[in-house]
Amino acid sequence: MKLLFCEDCWDVFKLDTEVRKCKCGKVSGRYLRDETNAEVNGKGISLAIGNGSLYDAIGKMKVVASPDRDFFLENTTVVCWVRPNEGPGNPHTRVSKNIDADHKCHQWPTDRLF
Ligand SMILES: [Zn+2]
Prior knowledge:
Layout: E1 2-5, E2 12-14, E3 20-21, E4 28-31, E5 38-40, E6 45-49, H1 51-63, H2 69-75, E7 80-83, E8 93-95, H3 99-106
The protein binds zinc ion.
The site of zinc ion (ZN) has 9 residues, from loops.
């Protein structure tokens, strides 16, 4: 699962096929139609959560009989990688300087809502 982190507002958000932005608006990105490749505006930090480790941790959390902090610290760790926004370290993501401009073109014109 691809996520973006904004160093300014500390927002972390999951990419979707619609362009998403952090709370302050500096960082944006989206999955392409294949939902494997993505494009980002290059202003944030790319993160990836290992889907298998997330599902495994959720499964353990749901079945534990008497949860205590130590159980979760030892058994529900999720793998997360910090990666560059493109290149060999993140081969399915590319930086697109036009993503923010393209997104504005697709926004619903708010002056026509009322
Ligand atoms: Zn931000």
